[in-house]
Structure to design on (337 residues):
């Protein structure tokens, strides 16, 4: 009855390139600002608390004529079953007819859109000529953040790498990331990669800091951060997660992807609950800065924060462009639903 395209991980890795995803995510933010989108309430269910849960994030991209959802399940015991702990699936539908259009593996799309999001924060809010970037976290998301930021902020010359759990992992990562960036993203820049020995010092010399860890307490203290620094906080995507000192929110220019999500589940949550920032003190959502309706940074002394909580609209738009590219290349499998 319905011809539905199925795109697996391999097809998505083949068709999606970071520059086009950055452009797509910027478009999502601007459509959101222009009221061309809707986010639906999130669903979260614990099958067995701390052992197995799932969430569904969904929304409508009116400007792109699609709606849809991403379902992510987390099953901790999968590690004994040789299966990934996190499994994500995206479904998109035509918003003119309600007909299903596609089912996609969500893993690579999540990496690409999350990397693009952190980088867009840096592109619009960091100082011009930012030279040093600090990546906090060396997990799955980190390489997407580094690739996207090197593309979106071409003035970066040095990337400092910090794994809060292990200096050895920081060193291994710093030694291998150049090759991964070339192989996975075709990014080949004259950039040096250095493992961090002293975290406080590394924070103090960085122009752009991107955090992508599941930390539940501040790792970066306010008095370590020099004037002019930009921080894109990516790791905090559910209640209780926190990566940077909530006191930073008192004076920084705080820009978010979605105000509701930021105060409930984002990096802003802790500062919000502590009364350090209120919704009306959040400078704006990022779409307003991209559109030029809001200035963003006002001087080289401002500290800027982009709270990138991650919204379903990013997955939907990235899925849409992946579908178009796969169609052009004759990739993917069509099923009759
Ligand atoms: N905002 C978004 O759109 C979005 C999208 C995807 C993932 N995330 C979040 O980003 C974070 C990182 O995801 P990932 O897939 O790279 O994870 P991962 O498990 O692959 O890597 C996590 C990294 O953080 C470090 N780490 C682990 N526990 C820590 C702790 N308690 N304190 C400090 N560091 C710790 C690890 O050593 C590793 O370097 C997670 O919180 C994830 O939920 C956010």
């Amino acid at each position: 009855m319905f011809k539905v395209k199925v795109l697996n991980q391999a097809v998505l890795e083949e068709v999606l390139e970071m520059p086009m995803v950055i452009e797509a995510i910027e478009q999502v933010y601007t459509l959101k600002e222009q009221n061309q989108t809707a986010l639906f309430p999130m669903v979260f269910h614990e099958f067995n608390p701390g052992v197995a849960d799932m969430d569904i994030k969904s929304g409508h991209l009116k400007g792109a004529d699609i709606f849809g959802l991403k379902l992510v399940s987390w099953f901790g015991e999968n590690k004994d079953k040789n299966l990934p702990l996190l499994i994500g699936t995206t479904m998109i539908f035509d918003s003119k007819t309600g007909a299903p259009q596609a089912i996609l593996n969500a893993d690579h799309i999540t990496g690409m859109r999350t990397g693009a999001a952190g980088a867009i924060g840096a592109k619009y809010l960091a100082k011009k000529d930012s030279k040093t970037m600090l990546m906090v976290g060396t997990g799955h998301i980190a390489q997407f953040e580094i690739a996207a930021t090197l593309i979106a902020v071409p003035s970066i010359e040095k990337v400092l790498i910090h794994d809060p759990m292990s200096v050895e992992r920081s060193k291994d990562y710093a030694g291998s990331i150049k090759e991964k960036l070339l192989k996975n993203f075709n990014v080949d820049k004259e950039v040096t990669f250095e493992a961090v020995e002293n975290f406080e010092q590394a924070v103090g010399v960085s122009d752009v800091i991107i955090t992508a860890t599941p930390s539940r307490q501040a790792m970066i203290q306010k008095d370590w951060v020099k004037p002019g620094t930009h921080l894109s906080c990516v790791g905090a995507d559910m209640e209780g997660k926190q990566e940077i000192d909530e006191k930073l929110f008192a004076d920084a220019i705080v820009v978010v992807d979605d105000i509701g999500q930021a105060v409930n589940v984002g990096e802003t949550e802790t500062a919000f609950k502590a009364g350090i920032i209120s919704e009306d003190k959040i400078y704006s959502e990022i779409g307003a800065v991209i559109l030029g309706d809001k200035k963003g940074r006002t001087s080289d002394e401002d500290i800027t924060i982009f709270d990138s909580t991650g919204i379903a609209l990013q997955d939907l738009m990235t899925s849409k462009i992946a579908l178009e590219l796969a169609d052009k290349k004759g990739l993917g499998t069509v099923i009759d639903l």
Notes: The longest strand covers residues 52-61. The pocket of nicotinamide-adenine-dinucleotide is lined by residues 110, 114, 137-142, 163-165, 212-215, 234-235, 237, 241, 308-310 (CB under 6 Å). The chain has a mean pLDDT of 97. The chain has two domains: 3-109+313-336, 121-311.
